[in-house]
Amino acid sequence: MKPRYLLPLAFAALALGARPVGGGACNSPASTSTVGSGSGGAFGTPALAAEGVPAIDGSGAFGFRVTGGVPGGPGLLALSRNEQPQFSSTYQTTLYAGPTPVFVLFQFDANGEALVRPGATNAPLPELCGRALIAQAASLDFTAPGGAGWTNGLRFSFGLPTPAK
């Protein structure tokens, strides 16, 4: 399976069992915010940020930008409907995804950066509108505690883009 199909499948898995927040029509604003900080190794602490707007119609070209990873190395994006911060003594940082995250594998480029996003034609499922979600990424790094450098968390919710003023 090609990697570009993994993120839409992850969003579909997050929507399983979800109920629309707003009676069917999406009337929630799109949002993103970072939470906490991560931990790293010799390449520094990786960081996770939103790329674009999590617009429910897919017009915001939303994705996840991960920086500070091991150049050319593998990465892991965890997505969850349940934010449950728990300190990990193994990784020496707080992990934010709840007990049942969905994982998406990716690879860092030669600069230690990656952009993980669904294909241009894939809009998120309507069931995710307004639902608070959490993401966190890891860079497999043998110099980091536990063998992985973890990013900050990223809270996000799909909705309508904020009107331009």
Produce the secondary structure layout.
Blueprint: H1 6-15, E1 31-35, E2 47-51, E3 63-67, E4 74-80, E5 83-88, E6 93-97, E7 102-107, E8 114-116, E9 133-140, E10 148-157
Q: Key features?
A:
165 residues; Immunoglobulin-like; 1 helix; single chain; 36% strand; five-stranded antiparallel sheet; three-stranded antiparallel sheet; 6% helix; mainly beta
3D architecture notes:
The chain has 1 helix and 10 strands; from the N terminus they run αββββββββββ. By secondary structure, the protein is mostly beta strands. The chain has a single domain (3-17, 29-124, 131-157), classed as Immunoglobulin-like, CATH 2.60.40. The strands form 3 sheets. Strands 1-10-9-4-7 form a 5-stranded antiparallel β-sheet, with helices on one face. The protein has a 3-stranded antiparallel β-sheet with strand order 2-3-8, with no helix packed on it. Mean pLDDT is 84; it is low at 16-23.
Short account of what is shown:
This protein is mainly beta and 165 residues long. It has 1 helix and 10 strands, in the order αββββββββββ.
